[in-house]
């Protein structure tokens, strides 16, 4: 059985002065800090390659912020960016709203909050896990075809789909407090496989020292 790793990287900070929950809306690009985060992630993966990692592919969500985050890493590694729609941001009924916390005082929105376990305001957690893991499995197998034993693939995605996939991988409940997600901007959640079996989950924050400067909206 071949060993392989799939890295799920979250995008960098987005230019969002109105603090909109942008979800799948088009046109939201990285801020200056976000571009710095993307470069930092590229340096992280370049160092991995220099230390022997066999990174053979880079793919990203079709959303602009993910594509922009993936670009420096792909360039540094000499790889093309594949578009992977299965790792797109979660659907959310609050998409396009600003100051969502204040808007939740409106009784007309309370029906969206009745089931936080599903959740009732957006795409079910289990559906997010299913689509992301389908992409992970295919990208893992393709990495092994390209690079053999120990090959690695990078997928640049979004906080919520990455986080619930990690919860599922670690056999934890999918319902959670968004404020407690361990999936910071430009962070890397790595899934290690032995054949089809997930054997380890690892987490790294190449941009830990930049996070204090960032505007970070839960679900963004």
Automatic annotation (TrEMBL):
It comes from Zhihengliuella halotolerans. It holds the Pfam family His_Phos_1. One of its GO terms (molecular function) is phosphatase activity. This is Broad specificity phosphatase PhoE. GO terms for cellular component: cytoplasm.
């Amino acid at each position: 059985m071949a060993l392989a790793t799939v890295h799920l990287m979250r995008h960098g900070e987005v230019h969002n002065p109105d603090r909109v929950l942008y979800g799948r809306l088009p046109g939201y690009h990285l801020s200056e800090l976000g571009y710095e985060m993307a470069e930092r992630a590229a340096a992280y993966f370049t160092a991995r390659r220099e230390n022997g990692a066999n990174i053979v592919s880079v793919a990203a969500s079709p959303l602009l912020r993910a594509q922009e985050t993936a670009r420096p890493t792909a360039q540094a590694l000499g790889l093309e960016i594949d578009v992977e729609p299965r790792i797109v941001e979660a659907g959310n009924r609050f998409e396009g709203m600003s100051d969502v916390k204040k808007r939740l005082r409106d009784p007309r929105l309370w029906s969206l909050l009745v089931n936080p376990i599903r959740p009732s305001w957006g795409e079910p957690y289990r559906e997010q896990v299913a689509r992301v893991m389908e992409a992970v499995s295919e990208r893992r197998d393709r990495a092994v075809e390209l690079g053999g034993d120990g090959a690695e693939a990078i997928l640049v995605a979004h906080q919520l789909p990455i986080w619930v996939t990690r919860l599922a991988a670690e056999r934890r409940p999918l319902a959670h407090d968004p404020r407690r997600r361990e999936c910071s901007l430009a962070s890397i959640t790595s899934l290690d496989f032995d054949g089809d079996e997930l054997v380890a989950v690892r987490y790294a924050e190449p941009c830990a020292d930049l996070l204090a400067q960032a505007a970070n909206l839960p679900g963004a």
